[in-house]
Amino acid sequence: MKVLLNINLLSLIIFSLCCTTHNQQQIAIERVEVDTFETKLNTLENAFLIDVRTPAEYKKGHIRGATNIDFNQVENMKLAFENLDRNQPMLIYCAAGGRSYKTSFLMKEMGFKQVYELSSGISGWKAASKAISIE
Questions:
Q1: Sign of torsion over alpha carbons 48, 66, 39, 98
Q2: Nearest Cα to 52, choosing from 35, 28, 31, 77?
Q3: pTM for the complete prediction?
Q4: What is the pLDDT of residue 4?
């Protein structure tokens, strides 16, 4: 009886580990360099691009197609994220990578499945001579 109980317990543990590993494989929260970020931007279907800088920073130049959601307005940011599709690929950036890095953790906590964060921010984007939009 004890052996049967141990086998059942072991089976349950193995099943739990398999399910956990499967779920973890479905979540992609990655900090990427400029070229990878650009590739994701151009190839991911239905990707949503987010600039987490202030509106004043955004107006000085941003990556074309970006939506500005100010990191400094945390409650507004959370409300904006509530309205987004958790399964849609998200690409985020800030000035140098600090705010977007923190935002990626928030998005993970909120259940987003694919978040790609530009490690060097828009400053790295500019340094790599990538296009900037002023709209």
A1: negative
A2: 77
A3: 0.80
A4: 47
Classify domain 27-127 at the CATH superfamily level.
Rhodanese-like domain (3.40.250.10)
**Looking up tokens 């921010």, which residue turns up?**
121
Distances (CA, A) of 81 to 61, 110, 113, 117: 23, 8, 13, 15
Angle at 39 between CA 35 and CA 45, to 5 degrees: 160
In the chain, which residue ranges form alpha helices assigned H by DSSP? Answer: 2-26, 34-43, 55-59, 74-82, 98-109, 121-127
| Strand bridging mode 114-118 / 90-93 | parallel
| pLDDT at residue 21 in the model | 40
Question: Measured between alpha carbons, how far apart are the two ends of the chain, in Å?
Answer: 72
Domain borders along the chain are 27-127
pLDDT mean for each 10 residues of the chain (135 residues): 48 44 64 97 96 97 97 95 96 97 95 97 98 90
Give the integer Cα–Cα distance in Å for 34 and 16: 37
